[in-house]
Amino acid sequence: MNKAELVSAIAKRADVPASTVDAVLAGLQDELVDAITRGDKVAVSGLLTVERTQRSARTGRNPQTGEAIEIAAANTVKVTAGSNLKKAASAVPVS
């Protein structure tokens, strides 16, 4: 599902205009970016948690040559599924 399909599905389910849903998603994106920039953790109970984490510097390998390379430390984003998403995923039979 892409963003346009998500906007359409939410608009239909919530019975609101798609432009309103699009504006809310844009606001959510802006707020998540600002929170991650500040180092804040954002938790939407039952749905997900988003937080900034740090990855240590490490030694890796170039897959083509096999030579060792140094990978710098970096900040990254961690998204953790909430209980409702976990329940939904576990309810689907494994194929």
TrEMBL record:
Q: Name one GO cellular component term.
A: cytosol
Q: Does the keyword Repressor apply?
A: no
Give GO terms: molecular function aspect only.
DNA binding; structural constituent of chromatin
Print the keywords alphabetically. DNA condensation, DNA-binding
Task: Please cite one Gene Ontology biological process associated with this protein.
Answer: chromosome condensation
Q: Which SUPFAM superfamilies match?
A: IHF-like DNA-binding proteins
From the record, give the transmembrane residue ranges: none
One of the Pfam families matching this protein, by short name: Bac_DNA_binding
The Swiss-Prot or TrEMBL record describes its family as follows: Belongs to the bacterial histone-like protein family.
Q: What is this protein called?
A: DNA-binding protein HU-beta
Q: Which organism is it from?
A: Blastococcus aggregatus
